[in-house]
Design goal:
Elements lengths: L15 H15 L6 H8 L3 H4 L6 H14 L11 H17 L4 H10 L6 H11 L5 H30 L16 H26 L5
């Protein structure tokens, strides 16, 4: 790739990681609609053309942001060896990582839809599910279903939280985790959905249909 002529000496200040870190800050402070290449360039004090040295387009930038968000899905120190417990732990860690950034679920979901990014969330869920004796194909399909549920659920949670912040949702219906009733209900719905999916998989073990 040819270095853009308009970049100038400022280009050398920032690495690829610097660009992703700045983009994450903008995402968290302003949301996905306001994460533009022009705003990002202004934040880094470079010309917009400098960003294309690291990323071919905004979609590849968002893919790197999505990978960074997923990489923060850390598990508790104690390792869970039983496959359902391991899979649930991965799901909960991913939910926490998505909620840590404004519009986190939307960024990861759009990256997944375009087939971009490293696919780390899918790999981790699939690996945990394989511990139940499922073959690779069945594990990947089950992981995809679980991932879609997690992304959809967290996306809904984040939309409600943003609506709360704008004051358009009555306090008694707030999705804020501080709200003892609705906050607990949101987490309860997430846990119940994970339980349903894992219980359905477990039925296949008992039915002897681990592989096609």
């Amino acid at each position: 790739m040819t270095k853009p002529e308009s970049v100038g000496s400022k280009y050398t200040r920032h690495s690829r990681d610097d660009v992703v870190a700045a983009a994450l800050n903008i995402l968290d402070e302003h949301g996905l609609p306001d994460l533009t290449m022009r705003r990002l360039a202004a934040t880094l004090d470079v010309q917009p053309s400098a960003l294309y040295w690291h990323f071919a387009n905004k979609q590849t930038l968002l893919a790197s942001i999505a990978d960074q968000i997923v990489s923060r899905a850390t598990l508790p120190g104690q390792t869970e060896h039983e496959w359902k417990g391991a899979t649930r732990a991965e799901a909960e860690a991913l939910r926490d990582a998505l909620l840590a950034f404004r519009d986190g679920a939307e960024v990861v979901s759009s990256t997944l839809a375009l087939g971009l990014g490293a696919g780390e969330a899918q790999k981790r869920l699939s690996g945990a599910i394989r511990g139940g004796g499922f073959d690779q194909g069945r594990s990947e399909v089950a992981a995809a279903a679980l991932l879609h549920f997690i992304l959809g659920h967290v996306s809904h949670e984040q939309q409600r939280l943003q609506a709360d912040s704008l004051g358009v949702v009555p306090q008694e219906h707030s999705a804020d985790p501080a709200n003892a009733t609705t906050g607990a209900r949101g987490r309860e719905a997430f846990d119940f959905g994970i339980t349903l999916l894992l219980s359905g998989l477990e039925l296949q073990i008992h039915a002897g249909t681990l592989s096609d």
